[in-house]
Fold this protein.
Amino acid sequence: MITKKNRLNCTPTSLNMTYITASKLYDYIQCPHRIWRDANGPQEEKIDETNPFVELLWEKGVKHEEKIVSQLGDFLDLSEGTHEERFAKTTEAMKSKASLIYQGVLICENMLGIPDLLKKLPDDTYMPVDIKSGMGFEGVDEETGEEGKPKKHYAVQLCLYNDLLKKLGFCTHNNGVVIDIHGEHVEYDLVALMGPRSKKSWWEFYEEIKKHVDFLLNNQHTNKPAMAGICKLCPWYNSCKGWCEETKDLTNVFYLGRSNRDKLNEDLLIESLDEFVDLDIEEAMKQKENEKKSGNKDFLYRIGKDSLAKAVCRANILCRTKKPVLYGTLDFPKVSHELFFDIEDDPTQDFVYLHGVYERSANGEKFIHFTAKEITDDSEKRIWQDFWNYINTLPPDDFAVYYYAHHEKTTYKRLQKRYPDVITLEEVENFYDNPNVIDLYSVIQKQTDWPVGSYSLKALATYLKFKWRDKTPSGALSIQWFNEYLETKDESIMKRILEYNEDDCKATMILKDALEKL
């Protein structure tokens, strides 16, 4: 039983305090630098407009939350008012043993949390519950039935709510719950180890991140920007990219990454690409071995000789030779029909709305597409069936298919499971196992290097002077355009989607041709 004696006095001393919140913990996991930049960075360099795809994700999240909340039954709604007003009402409601509280506010010290739900347990303590528009666990394998593991950002957010409840005296357990996209209630054990090989619990991970966030918010610690795939949706993208280019930061090198950059900065005192390209790899490995013998296992941790040599080679190509390199030879199939293939799908609704093919043959070139204009199972199934009907019209063993990265393959396996009467799993696997069906990204990764910092299709095709017709070509924006089309039925929006997909297919063709010339 909770009494006044074990309830802490956690009323904030300043209403202007910069709080540690669940969203800040999420931002830190996505990008450790964003916390400092949001609080202390050059605000004039921040993009004011929210990315339309990010807005779409917010809208989808809100709709999912509304759907879940509509099924809850009786609950106390505390979603209105200032944080301080809602905090007072939340604590009073928990003292009064309200069974279910929606959008309550928890404040203690320098922390503020707004769990979607606070659920009263039989012992009168409270469990934090968060409604998420994603899967409750990551790495779930539908084929083998493996459950996957907790998501980092879900776990640390639940830890924050649990921490606040404990400090306020309304919680004694170490658990939280996620209601996921399918309405499943997924319980997180917050003191469990992060993984079978980890020595750190989720709670220890949370405490570590919370400390870093606190230092960054208060400008007691700074860290560096880095270039990564996730950056393009961030309002600081242009600012951080400019810093990385100006300072010749090591993350300009494809696949080097923030953590390796930080180790190279710290252990070898190498800050810029100008220094990195002249690195003596053998000497660095000797230094690592000597440090290991003296007990320092963290020196160049997880950086081996081969990966270091690869990064130095890429840096040299990026900064000095500035020409693409092909390792070995390529032997693309000689066929009568070449297909350059790309799909568009909306992961927020698990829906494939476009299968696009740019066909090249002796008869010329043409764009062929199979497009859904409404989100229904019948529509998705029909266009997938139409795609396979088209494939079956091609001369057997006399066509080749080129695509970029594994997304199409994994999506098609998922579609087969959903619509098994369209095509068998064996037929899908045989299609992708065919040596004439080629993932160009795999070729790029294994057999080439390029004088660009990203090996995305857009980065490489742009380097090859290809231009998309759209001023803001983006797969994420295509999803936003499709959702806008569903609401308005504006055919100019559909035209934009089709042109974008056609250009993606053409870019794949341009890249294939460039590889042949290499």
In short: The first helix runs from residue 22 to 30. The first strand starts at residue 76 and ends at 77. DSSP finds 18 helices and 17 strands in the chain.
